[in-house]
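Milestone 3.1: sequence recovery, worked example.
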């Protein structure tokens, strides 16, 4: 069963996994992994325990969603 995606404006977590970040950006997971690997994307992910974590604040800023202080 697939986990429901929370709208980015309502997201309360600090970071998202690659699948959720790709969904919000309208890109494939592969594209985000390439951005991370080549360090060429508009967002720089964090590496937490060998996994990529995409900062929600950066995603919101890139997509023009209001960032809550």
């Amino acid at each position: 069963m697939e986990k429901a995606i929370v709208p980015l404006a309502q997201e309360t977590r600090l970071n998202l996994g690659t699948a959720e970040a790709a969904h919000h950006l309208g890109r494939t997971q592969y594209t985000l992994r390439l951005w991370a690997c080549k360090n060429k994307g508009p967002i720089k992910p964090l590496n937490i325990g060998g996994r990529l974590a995409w900062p929600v604040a950066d995603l919101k800023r890139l997509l023009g969603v209001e960032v809550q202080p």
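Residues 8-63 form a domain with the Multidrug-efflux Transporter Regulator; Chain: A; Domain 2 fold (CATH 1.10.1660). Strands lie at 15-16, 46-48, 51-55.
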